[in-house]
Amino acid sequence: MAQEFSSKVKINLSSEGNNSTTNIFFKWAVTGGKIVIIFTELIALGAFFYSFTVDQQIRDLHEQIDREVVILKSQEKQEAQYRNLQDRLKNIQAITSDVNFRIDSMYKIASESSMQQLSVQRLILNKDSITIDGSTPSIFNLSKFLKNLKLKNFVSSITINKVEKSDSGFDFSLDTQIKDKGNK
Q1: Tens digits of residue pLDDT in 138-173
Q2: Which of 29, 45, 110, 149 lies deepest, with the highest CB count within 10 Å?
Q3: Ordered structural domains, the chain, with CATH
Q4: pTM above the 0.70 mark?
Q5: Alpha helices, DSSP H only, in the chain?
Q6: Which region holds residue 17: left if phi is over 0, alpha if psi is between -120 and 50, else beta?
Q7: How do residues 77-130 score in pLDDT, each as one tens digit?
Q8: Residue 108 buriedness (CB in 10 A; 0-12 / 13-18 / 19+)
Q9: 46: Cβ–Cβ under 8 A, 6 or more apart, which residues?
Q10: Cα gap 71→153, rounded to integer Å
Q11: Cα-flanking dihedrals φ and ψ of residue 119, to 5°?
């Protein structure tokens, strides 16, 4: 009986000789899984080490920003002076343009007076007016001068301060109000 029992049962724990398709598939799957896990770990390690590089770049950028802020703060006073100078130059340009307009207006009045045989003794340029003191041999010349002056587009009004008879004809004084440059 002992002999019958030993011949019927065989236990083989080794995988030799057992090359079925399932066994081959499982071996391939386990090997493939190991490779996927190794690649995943390599990618994770790469990302971990790359984070150190990114952190260093962020620190470098913060240091650069701090340096730039210091430079900008040191230039702040000069920038304010520069802007102030630019504003003053703009104001000077506007004033110069306005003064040139008034001088041009005064020149036109003086040339008109010479055409009308007027002698101008004093010509005063104010902010918005021109005062003219002069003399003329005939009241008709003064009348014609005033008429032509009213037609000028830069004159807003004319005020006659005095007209007196003198030895040479007539002495006069008048104020001419000038329009703003924009209302020319």
Answers
A1: 888 888 888 888 888 778 889 999 999 988 889 999
A2: 149
A3: 94-183 (3.30.1360.100)
A4: no
A5: 2-8, 21-115, 139-150
A6: left
A7: 899 999 999 999 999 888 788 777 777 776 777 676 666 678 888 888 887 888
A8: middle
A9: none
A10: 54
A11: -110, 120
